[in-house]
Design brief:
binds zinc ion; 374 residues; alpha/beta; two-stranded parallel sheet; TIM Barrel; 44% helix; single chain
Length: 374
């Protein structure tokens, strides 16, 4: 009897245990399902929330607000976003027309020239304030135009040997040059600056119109970006300099458009003279350059292509001599005020830059402009 009762109790107990186990499993499954549903809802919700645009670190509006305030704030109806209508209502506190986070907060008036509406990613919105060098500063910026080429790798070796940095204003004007384009990455990796010179270097094409200039510029800008994996410099150099025999009709409009987009440009105050003719001797290039450096010039024009072997052969000697005299060789980084003696078209640059919502000129330039106004 006792055994039977025990068996019965045992069966009853194990039955209850099974019941509890089953209940426990059901509760567990429900909990897991609930957690999965909650996670899914959170994930879908996060995908629906519109992306907050990256705030651009543009200059303070204090000195330039009068120029840019006429334009409507962020109503860029020329670049509509097909997917924005729904999310706009949900995000009343967000700017209304930011199609993607890479697009800067720039408005283009409806009646603006068509070229202003092209290349919405071609803006420099984070330009720092510019400065000028002291008159006795022993700083030299060697600038090499027209590369890359078969002379680029040996030039980089020389620069490395003397721990000197330089600026490359590059182009891609032939199949030959395309072959050397990967060297732009080596330039950047070794601490030099790579900036746009032009893609085709065909003056008649590039200076046909502002639009033609922009098309060419953008091609080179993208090539540098793709090759180096980095944004190209926030400045450039005009082929032939900012004012030349081919761009008289259009250079002022190009300056206005590029500065509107936040780009500045550099000509030079010292010329090595290596482009003066077919066969400039190494001795002349050396003498021209040292002379310019001793006169206090900072931005030196040189070339790095085809027949400019004589330049390459002099660079080491120039750097070595000047370094012994206390000069430092640096790469331009876009913070040097180009209107401090490095431009052929200072007046045009300054007035365009003062209208740009992205460019802050140096205190030196602003004081000069203020003095002129009085
Ligand atoms: Zn050139």
């Amino acid at each position: 009897m006792k055994l039977k009762r025990n068996k019965k109790r045992y069966r009853y107990a194990s039955g209850r245990r099974r019941l509890y186990t089953r209940r426990f499993m059901i509760v567990s499954i429900c909990a897991i399902l609930a957690a999965a549903i909650v996670s899914a809802v959170i994930f879908i919700g996060s995908q629906l929330v519109p992306r907050v645009p990256v705030a651009s670190e543009g200059p303070s509006q204090s000195s330039q607000s009068s120029a840019s305030s006429e334009k409507p704030s962020s109503e860029d109806s020329s670049q509509p976003s097909s997917e924005s209508s729904e999310s706009q209502e949900e995000s009343s506190s967000q700017p209304s027309s930011e199609p993607s986070s890479s697009q800067p907060e720039v408005s283009v008036a409806d009646d603006a020239p068509d070229y202003q509406k092209k290349y919405p990613d071609l803006y420099v919105t984070d330009r720092p304030k510019m400065h000028v060098l002291d008159d006795d500063a022993k700083v030299v910026y060697l600038t090499f135009d027209d590369g890359p080429s078969d002379l680029t790798a040996p030039l980089l070796d020389v620069l490395k040997k003397y721990n000197a940095k330089a600026t490359f204003f590059d182009c891609c004007q032939s199949d030959y040059q395309e072959e050397f384009a990967p060297l732009m990455k080596r330039c950047v990796d070794e601490g030099h600056t790579v900036a746009v010179h032009t893609y085709s270097h065909q003056f008649k094409e590039v200076y046909q119109s502002v639009e033609a200039y922009l098309d060419d510029f953008y091609k080179m800008y993208k090539l540098i970006e793709e090759t180096t994996g980095q944004k190209p410099a926030n400045f450039f150099r005009f082929p032939g300099g900012s004012k030349n025999a081919y761009n008289g009709d259009v250079y002022q409009d190009i300056i206005k458009e590029m500065t509107r987009r936040g780009f500045i440009y550099y000509d030079w105050d010292g010329d090595s003279g290596d482009a003066a003719g077919g066969n400039v001797s190494g001795a002349t290039i050396y003498a021209n350059t040292m002379d310019a450096i001793h006169k206090g010039c900072n931005i030196i024009l040189m070339h790095n292509i085809f027949d400019k072997k004589a330049t390459l052969e002099q660079v080491g000697k120039i750097i070595k001599t000047a370094q012994k005299e206390g000069y430092e060789f640096k790469a331009l980084d876009g913070t040097l005020d180009p209107s401090h003696g490095y431009l052929m078209t200072t007046k045009e640059f300054v007035s365009a830059a003062m209208d740009s919502q992205f460019i802050q000129l140096s205190d030196w330039r602003m004081e000069k402009e203020k003095a002129k106004g009085n």
